[in-house]
Design goal:
78% helix; mainly alpha
């Protein structure tokens, strides 16, 4: 009986994940208390953070919620953090959770008209290097005023539909080479678009949560934020667009995939079918979706409410005017958003460990031993590195609070120096943070989406595809800070 139960335990623990992965997680769970009690909580905190990043890196082996959640629960049990700290992290990030649950779900109800519009764009532009640049630029332009996660959700929905059209017809043809080519094409495109949301997000105070937090603390309004940060954000954005074009034009490794002609034919056929089979009801639904999408853009651009609350309004209006009034009509929209929302709460628990054990405090103190241009560069690279290791909003909060404390304690720091440091904190937690999926919520959302396994988009694959952007934009930002700030 005991042997049978143990067998069931080994089979069911973490489901169909590889044996080596299950053993690794068990080793983590056994080793962590030993490190905590026999070495130090500080070391144990860093070990848990690295282990959690490992679970993200292996997201295609096992969804990070379960192994990451076990690490978070153990951290609470052994005392690396406490429920009060985790609750504070969650409460501080309620807007993000509302966004993930309601705005991402809301996109489901307007995806039909978005798919028609994006399909037209894909079919009109045949050269991939032009399509990639246009797609990246559109995402960047919109994310400067809207929300990056919302745009990524739209891009995921469009690419998912393209993949479904092709896979539905070609999955039984045995043409694996063409299927891999199409996967690679979509993989490149979704990465260009997601990086585009990061490029645009650096430009305005509403582009990223850390922009809003730092801009509010500094008392900057919309145009003031642009004036202060454009000296770094504009050159970095130009570098990003040049990288996008160059990667595709010169067909660099990882970006050599093209859309198979067969895939284009199937997508065109599906598009023409939808157009020819339009009924009065379809036209009505598309008109409602267009109107609601325009209202969404205006509401987000003017920030009339929290993004998640705007999402609830979108859901209510679209479903009310298109007749989707049954419970099961609504439930399906939340299937993609909820797992990621729960994973984010687990992530906040890991950030509770970082906060409680003061894991970044020694680095913060080290940065402020420098002065002048050296301090700006050290601050830029330090908070950038910490951002892609943990979370950019959390690191931005830690550093800007430290800068504010130094300024308000009468240390002789001028307002101009204070503003320069704020710009560096903001740019450092935006640009270098794109190096890894955990650095930006948009990248993490893409990694854990249902599209990622279909396109074989792993943590390391995302790291490799984003690396040219990271290097070019980070170095451009550093040069702009040193010579122009």
């Amino acid at each position: 009986m005991i042997k049978s139960l143990f067998h069931q335990l080994t089979v069911n623990f973490l489901g169909q994940s590889p044996e080596w992965y299950k053993i690794t997680i068990v080793i983590f769970l056994v080793v962590n208390p030993l490190i905590y009690y026999f070495l130090s909580p500080f070391v144990a905190g860093w070990v848990v953070l690295v282990q959690f990043i490992f679970t993200l890196a292996c997201a295609l082996k096992c969804y990070p919620l379960q192994p990451g959640g076990l690490l978070a629960i153990e951290a609470l049990v052994i005392g690396l953090t406490n429920p009060q700290t985790v609750s504070q992290e969650v409460l501080a990030n309620i807007p993000t959770l509302l966004l993930l649950i309601f705005m991402v779900s809301a996109i489901f109800f307007i995806k039909d008209v978005l798919f028609i519009a994006m399909t037209k764009l894909f079919l009109v532009i045949r050269r991939k290097y032009i399509l990639s640049l246009v797609f990246c630029f559109i995402c960047a332009s919109l994310s400067a005023f809207l929300d990056a996660l919302t745009l990524v959700a739209i891009a995921i929905a469009v690419c998912f539909n393209f993949y479904a059209i092709y896979h539905r017809v070609e999955s039984y043809s045995g043409n694996d080479k063409e299927m891999e080519e199409f996967r690679g094409f979509l993989r490149d495109l979704i990465m260009h678009g997601t990086v585009g949301t990061i490029i645009g997000g650096t430009m305005t105070i509403v582009g990223e949560p850390n922009n809003m937090m730092i801009g509010t603390k500094m008392g900057w309004h919309f145009m003031e934020f642009i004036a202060h940060c454009s000296v770094v954000s504009v050159p970095s954005a130009i570098a990003g667009f040049l990288v996008c074009f160059s990667l595709e034009f010169f067909r660099c490794p990882g970006f050599r995939y093209q859309m198979p002609e067969r895939a284009r034919e199937l997508i065109l056929k599906d598009y023409n079918k939808k157009i020819h089979e339009l009924t009065g009801h379809n036209v009505y639904v598309y008109v409602v979706q267009i109107i609601v999408f325009l209202l969404l853009v205006l509401a987000l651009a003017f920030h009339v409410a929290e993004v998640g609350l705007i999402g609830i309004g979108l859901i209510v209006i679209v479903t009310a005017f298109t007749g989707l009034t049954k419970e099961h009509d609504l439930g399906v929209a939340f299937t993609n958003a909820m797992p990621f929302a729960v994973l984010i709460v687990v992530f906040f628990a890991i950030l509770g460990v970082v906060h409680e054990q003061h894991l970044v405090t020694p680095l913060v103190k080290w940065v402020f031993t420098f002065s002048g241009k050296e301090q700006l560069i050290a601050l830029y690279f330090t908070n950038g590195t910490l951002s892609f290791v943990s979370d950019n909003v959390f690191i931005a909060t830690v550093f800007i609070n430290e800068v504010e404390n130094i300024y308000t304690q009468g240390t002789g720091m001028t307002r101009e120096e204070y503003e320069k440091l704020a710009v560096v904190v903001n740019m450092g937690t935006n640009i270098p943070a794109m190096a890894t999926p955990n650095g930006h919520a948009a990248l993490l959302f893409l990694l854990t989406s249902s599209l990622a396994p279909l396109l074989k988009l792993s943590y390391f694959q995302m790291f490799k595809l984003a690396l040219p952007y990271t290097i070019a934009m980070t170095l451009t930002g550093a040069l702009a800070i040193y010579f122009y700030l």
